[in-house]
UniProtKB/TrEMBL annotation:
NCBIfam families attached to this UniProt entry: guan_deamin, PRK09228.1
UniProt-listed Pfam families: Amidohydro_1, HUTI_composite_bact
Cofactor binding note from Swiss-Prot or TrEMBL: Binds 1 zinc ion per subunit.
Keyword field: Hydrolase, Metal-binding, Zinc
Name this protein carries in UniProt: Guanine deaminase
Any one GO cellular component localisation term in the record: cytosol
Domain of life per record: Bacteria
Length: 435
């Protein structure tokens, strides 16, 4: 008989998107809740007392007043940039040329790719992140390394080979045909295997010729259930460069749209400096915009218009953008999202931030039926937060009058010390003592 496990503590999940400034009935919170797990999935949620009574044989893991949440979902990252995160002093294009491209060159070595993929996923788990959608490098073996490492840990992850055929060093470029052939072979090998999904991945318009964008557009039209990820309108210098490279395009988004790379399964990282036409088109097709706030402040890119984009009905996810982003932590990322929104006069409620980091990102990645919520049928990917992980946080959360006041200090000041445990598919993967 499959074992049944009952996690008890405070529980929090969302059954709809909360408002920007209030939980508005979207939050399901229980101060004495439980999550019943069997066969890798959540089979019941509810009050501790009711679940204990109905399932006396379940093994109970009692988390006391820790907060049980769906695992965090990082909707945009570059795992190959793990070892050069927090590199000093550059803006986007210089940062790519000085730090990123030299590091990505190293992934031609499959042993190095495996080492970093394993290190990266372990760092994610230590930070309570259970799913990520990552760029790999141009090397097919960097994709194999990433999926093999995720498979070994039982994780639901998404990723793809980063395609570039111009404006990048020779060791990091492919050709339109090679981008198509290698992406297709990787898609055939990995897409839908275990909990893995392949993502068609042109890096961004400046590093692809129209021929390469077209080839990847064709691959996407042949595999429309795959996601496609890229970057859009991150820095003003980059936008000016795109205008020079694609004089016939109406705007940056059009450089994707013209070549079949705009669609409802598209993920557009950053999306900061958008023109009205771009915003209209993104909303019309139901594409997802991915907000990367630590990256946007770290590389000096700009302030994402969360309130305006939410009001337009855009689909939005949240992400670290490791290593343009300055931390692996989705807590730090929520903190930065709060601060960026404050600079635009838009305070974001902790419910909205937590929704973005769980269900919101899961839905942006079209994974909302599998992950992102504590509900029967969902895969049991869970993060348990200690709301008093440091003396500074503890003294503030002791004053809290409700769960939102209790969790907000951890969002603003918390790091991996706040991650009490992470569960993947019903298995405890990161016991505190192992750190
Ligand atoms: N634009 C194109 N490539 C990248 C990258 O690796 N990181 C970030 N932040 N922006 C990009
Ligand atoms: Zn990125």
């Amino acid at each position: 008989m499959t074992a049944t496990t009952l996690l008890t503590g405070q529980t929090l999940t969302f059954n709809a998107r909360p408002g920007l400034t209030s939980p508005e009935g979207a939050a399901i919170y229980d101060s004495a809740g439980g999550v019943l797990i069997k066969g890798g999935r959540i089979v019941a949620t509810g009050s501790t007392a009711k679940l204990r009574a109905a399932h006396p044989d379940a093994e109970e893991i009692a988390y006391g007043d820790a907060l049980i949440l769906p695992g965090f979902v990082d909707a945009h990252a570059h795992y190959p940039q793990t070892a050069m995160i927090a590199s000093w002093g550059k803006r986007l294009i210089d940062w790519l040329n000085s730090y990123t491209f030299p590091e990505e060159m190293r992934f031609g070595d499959p042993a190095y790719a495996s080492e970093i993929a394993g290190r990266y996923l372990d760092l994610l788990l230590a930070h309570g992140t259970t799913t990520v959608c990552s760029f790999c490098t141009v090397h097919p073996q960097s994709v194999d390394a990433f999926f093999e490492a995720a498979q070994a840990r039982g994780m639901r992850v998404l990723g793809g080979k980063t395609c570039m055929d111009r404006n990048a060093p020779e060791g990091l470029t492919d050709s339109p045909q090679q981008a198509y052939d290698e992406s297709r072979a990787l898609l055939d090998r990995w897409h839908g295997v275990d909990r893995l999904g392949y993502v068609i991945t042109p890096r961004f318009s400046p590093t692809s010729t129209p021929e390469q964008l077209s080839a990847l557009g064709a691959l996407w039209s042949e595999n429309p259930d795959c996601l496609m990820q890229t970057h859009l309108s991150e820095q003003t210098d980059e936008i000016a460069w795109v205008k020079r490279l694609f004089p016939q395009a109406r705007d940056y988004l059009d450089t994707y749209e013209m070549y079949g790379l705009l669609g409802e399964n598209g993920l557009y990282g950053h999306s900061i400096h958008l023109e009205p036409r771009e915003r209209d088109r993104l909303a019309e097709v139901g594409a997802a915009l991915v907000h990367c706030p630590t990256s946007n402040t770290f590389i000096g890119s700009g302030l994402f218009d969360m309130a305006g984009l939410v009001a337009e009905g855009q689909r939005i996810g949240l992400a670290t953008d490791t290593g343009g982003g300055s931390d692996f932590s989705m807590l730090r990322t929520m903190c930065a999202a709060y601060e960026v929104a404050q600079l635009r006069g838009q305070p974001l409620h902790p419910a909205f931030l937590l929704w973005l980091a769980t269900a919101g990102s899961a839905e942006a990645l079209r994974q909302g039926e599998h992950i992102g919520a504590l509900a029967p049928g969902m895969e049991a990917d869970i993060c348990v937060l200690d709301l008093s992980s440091t003396p500074a946080i503890a003294q503030r959360s002791r004053r809290a009058n409700d769960i939102w006041e209790a969790v907000f200090p951890t969002i603003m000041m918390g790091d991996d010390r706040a991650i009490r445990d992470a569960w993947i598919g019903g298995n405890l993967v990161f016991p505190k003592g192992a750190r």
